[in-house]
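Cont'd.
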Amino acid sequence: MIDDVVFVSNKTNIMTTIELASYQIHVGNIWGELENWLQAQSYSRYIILVDENTRAYCWPLLQQKVNLPNPQIIEIRSGEQHKNIHTCTYIWKQLMDEKADRNALFINLGGGVIGDMGGFCAATYKRGIDFIQIPTTLLAQVDSSIGGKLGIDFGDVKNSVGLFTNPQKVFISPEFLETLPEREIRSGLAEIVKHSLIADSELWQKLQSIHQLNAVDWASLLVPSLEVKKRVVESDPLEKSWRKTLNFGHTIGHALESWALATPQPLLHGEAVAAGMLCETYLSGTVSGLDRHEVEAISDFILRIYNKQRFDPASFPTLIELMKNDKKNQDGQINFTMLQAIGTPLINQSCTDQDIEQSLTYYLER
Amino acid sequence: MIDDVVFVSNKTNIMTTIELASYQIHVGNIWGELENWLQAQSYSRYIILVDENTRAYCWPLLQQKVNLPNPQIIEIRSGEQHKNIHTCTYIWKQLMDEKADRNALFINLGGGVIGDMGGFCAATYKRGIDFIQIPTTLLAQVDSSIGGKLGIDFGDVKNSVGLFTNPQKVFISPEFLETLPEREIRSGLAEIVKHSLIADSELWQKLQSIHQLNAVDWASLLVPSLEVKKRVVESDPLEKSWRKTLNFGHTIGHALESWALATPQPLLHGEAVAAGMLCETYLSGTVSGLDRHEVEAISDFILRIYNKQRFDPASFPTLIELMKNDKKNQDGQINFTMLQAIGTPLINQSCTDQDIEQSLTYYLER
């Protein structure tokens, strides 16, 4: 595994714009574009949603780079456990107390929780006010900031209340990554790996050259990775079919993530997904015809980047039970996305419980 | 004023379909259409939202007319005071407990509260499941069932959390009106009167022939009234401009409704709107050139149908203060929709506080 290092992003003056059907994602040196865009609008005020971390580490940068007169800051506590209806009630109440009108702009400055929940509150305040996403974690930059999924956890089920609404724009600056712990960067990288495996073998080749996370030019990986997600979500915005390709690694990954929550070492989402991808790569070899050499190459790469997670074979039945509760299943059958080849996914795949156990054993023994 | 009578709707075998851009409204004898449509879908289950009244008076009719196997009933308490986030939490929890999946159909059987709040819960459960509206009050049939506005009251402000989402279909049966108190019918009629005044002078003429509410063929009034609302909301779905014509009578009406809430005799929405329309008709004569004979004709008609509401001139300042808090105002100026002529509205009109006081005095002294 790559040694932990202090992460330093590459500063660049380049900005790339990804055009989606109804909005744009700007990646790289976003500040001029953001300033110009704000100037061209006529928002009555700016509301910035932060948590204690993004208030301390990201808000100063945003404030320094862009003119936001009389900003109204709404601060919530960081963490998935606060992504719930109580926090929404707090956010709506702040908006009401400050008499934010329909012409206000809501700015989500943070990771996935801020983007998902802040977007949900903005999209439902007075039947919807404009919002933009300024994701500050690698995971949010590459994944949750695109696709229009907004929402909160409800009754112990992740993202079970929410809706699809697109932001006005998404602004992605790798500068924010400088404030992130190495472990968060590694976690976010897992979704880039996934995007390469399901749809971009060229990106996959590029990823092979990663040896030190502090030497990575993130903008150059974010753009092709976002292009993959864009193609997938635009072909199936409401997740009726092809969008399920994005679930690669997530069926076993989500089970590991839930399982680890109850242990002294909870996993970050990307850490769980990395382990899940390795298991589902093995399954793809067993049931979907993925070439043995590709199985090996993917396994090698993942274990070079990620610590192996430890769990006991005694936990296999619990893990399989968790997979059976996945909201994407139908008729009680666990629904997998697998690989036929690198870059070629297959949706709606199934296998036996024994196959799943073998994949978990493969992971532990590899 | 017309004497109170027991209301009996006209049963008819005719069904009229109003085509909107993305869905249809069926009015009249809807049962065959509803049954056929349900048969043609493949919903995994049916969830019916009711309150204690519609469970007792409307659900038996629906159940008798249409085959809905294994219905899941969610019952909430009737009344605007329950249109809040707590009731939403209860509804979402019921859906989760019953493991309703994304392929369930949510059926709103009730008045405006059921339609607005049930639609909001359906549109946000698992990022949105299909729902249909079966409005059972005249007010909901003619008004809130069309236009896609969904939501709840929050922090003492009506409809301040919500969104725009269209139902799969709306089914309007005048048979449900048979279960309504006379006062509710009279209240609903106010929105039909409004639709005629802002956009359909022919419908206005037709309304002149109403002398007994129990002799009215409601389907024949609902259809042209819905056609008016359809034209308005389709020309401006997000209420940026022309949709404001629907606010005629509502600026003063909402103030009277809020004011009366704190008195021993709260007003129904339509009762307040009827009084508001009379005042705003007078204002239209003062500031927007509405012909004096039309002012008189509208005043005569409203006072023939509706009891005059009693309030003291001492409450005028309170009423004007309430108008100034209206969410549709801009720059502290009260925003009125007025009439230039019957069928010809003017949006974004303003007047002096003295004009408003005169209109209230006119109402009281007429």
